Amino acid sequence: QVQLVESGGGLVQAGGSLRLSCAASGRTFSSYVMGWFRQAPGKERNFVGHINRSGSITFYSDSVRGRFTISRDNAKNTVYLQMNSLKSEDTAVYYCAAKLDVDITYTYWGQGTQVTVSS
């Protein structure tokens, strides 16, 4: 069982930056691929990006590639989402999620943190 808690959301002006954190419980954090997703009001939840277990490989959606960076610190059981050059369309609730390599879908989800970008 893994419990995930996101933090770091808030209100930021367009062009600004925010860093989200996702703290995981348990001693097997390094066993999980970690993903970030977001859900804008009235829309489906969408994939933002993910990072492999060691932190050596990341992948991003086209909408955030080049602006967002995912990193992780396995010693601290934490994954981060650094968001730069924020746009109003980045406004959403951001969720972190965890899955094992062998799984197709993410098993564990955080409660989400709100990011609002004002134009």
What does this structure look like?
With 119 residues, the chain is mainly beta. 0% of the residues lie in helices and 52% in strands. The chain is built from no helices and eleven strands. Strands 2, 4, 5, 6, 9, 10 and 11 form a seven-stranded mixed β-sheet that branches. It has a four-stranded antiparallel β-sheet with strand order 1-3-8-7, with no helix packed on it. 29% of the residues are buried.
N-to-C series of helices and strands: EEEEEEEEEEE
Helix coverage percent of residues? under 10%
Shape: globular
**Terminal Cα span:** 40 Å
Number of DSSP-assigned strands: 11
Number of helices, counting only DSSP H or I runs of 4 residues or more: 0
Overall pLDDT? 97
Q: Please mark out the parts with pLDDT under 50 across 5 or more consecutive residues, or reply none.
A: none
Strand content: over 45%
Radius of gyration: 13 Å
Major sheet characteristics: 7 strands, mixed
Gist?
This protein is mainly beta. The chain has no helices and eleven strands.
Descriptive key words:
11 strands; seven-stranded mixed β-sheet; mainly beta; four-stranded antiparallel β-sheet; 119 residues
